Amino acid sequence: MTYTATQVRAQAGAPGTGMRGAAVASAGIAVAGWVSFGRDLFGIGGGLTLLYAATLGLSFAALFVFTGLAVRRTALRGFQTRAMTHTMLIASGGCAFLLGLTLPDTTPTGLQTIISGPSEPALGIAIGIANPLGVIGIATAIIALVLAIRDSRGRVTLVETWNEEPAA
User: Fold this and answer.
1) Domain for residue 168, yes or no?
2) 157 has which bridge partners?
3) pLDDT digits (tens, 9 = 90+) for 15-33
């Protein structure tokens, strides 16, 4: 009895339009804008806004734009983007949205967030939630980028066979 395992790359289908990739990149820019400047919409933008724009905003924008380019390349090459890639993108966008609600900013009355205002203990809880949301949001965006790049190359599956040889 012999065992054989062969890697087989998926065959490309009909090329798509790549509009999903453009939607991913657009959503990424919107998410980055929300995380960076969302507090200004509620009148509590302050001294930390530029810091958030230069760090979190640029990170989310770059990750989503590069992921959008990879999703577009996948469609143009005729391959399918797997569901896990979309799931990671949605998770990252959701975390980034919640992050925008819980990021504190300095105002004349002290630190404030969109959902808590300046009142304690809600402010402390919101700040405590913001850090994990940011870490999870960036991590899932990185995972989505890696998956999208792998999707753009065509999925590789493992074909396993067992050959039965006749007994002598």
Assistant:
1) no
2) 8
3) 778 899 999 999 999 999 9
